[in-house]
Design brief:
Length: 347
Amino acid sequence: DPNFSRAMIETRRAYRRGIEHPKLDKLMKILKKELKKEDIKRIIVFTQFRDTVEQIYKKCKEEKMKAAKFYGQGTRTGAKGLTQKEQKEIIKAFRIGKYSILVSTSVAEEGMDIPSVDLVILYEPVPSEIRMIQRRGRTGRKRMGRMMVMITEKTRDEAYYWSSIRKENKMKKHLQKAKNMEIEIKSRAIEHKKTPKSKYIVYADSREVNSRVLRELTRMDIKVIIKSMAVADYQISEEVAIERKTTNDFINSLIDKRLYKQARELVREFKKPIMILEGEDLYTTFINPNAIRGAIASIAVDFGIPIIPTRSPEDTAAMIKRIAVREQSKEKAEIQIRTEKKPLTLK
């Protein structure tokens, strides 16, 4: 592509001449202005790449700002990551005020015990509504906080920003729909007081609200309670939770590397996690069958998660009911639903 080649040539020329992206200078102006305010003590600047972290950090040091860089433990192209000890020391220093600015990759989005900040700045937007919410969640915990998103006009920044906004609005609609569904179920129960109370309860994540599995469980006289769950799609008891994967979802989560992250979270949150693999067309995709078998083996052997195959949503519902009957026949205590993930510690 001649346009791409020309762009690369111009980029190299700009780099040799020391010309930087104007966004960097704009960020410095924002940081200087914000740090002059009495109510601004801690700022996190999120960016996508370690190279950009280094660039922003270097610029902050040139401007005599108290900044620290923060990223993961993995090694990237020869550059070593931070050790757990180093991460812990940086967070401690940030908490006590040694640093006013934390320049971080996505590693600081969730889990780690990072103190609440007064301002979050996104050096570039992310197309994921979850990551946008997680980053925004680093501020405004104890008092009003703010978030700024830096967008370069007529670039993919604009597309990423509006993509995350649309996805977040869609998520809110689904959550509201789930809430309305729960209200409807409750009102229906009031209208039919003579109907025997269901003996078994299944908690379902709000993302499953349109699933045929939910409708089938309700038809089976299972009491379904919709909740926004941080981990798993269904929770049966304090110890048992189920991640439901259609064959298509299994393949997609294998490709985008969600599969193993979800497996780790299941094992971390529940003593008896289960994965249901729904569908009969697992090996009809373009993915090498051995890669699929390897993933299944890893989930079962490395993570110790049993995988139960089902043929259809109806079959899945029947299996969930059977698990609920087995588990809740001996269950006495009220089930505690995981609406938040356990915090990751640096210990």
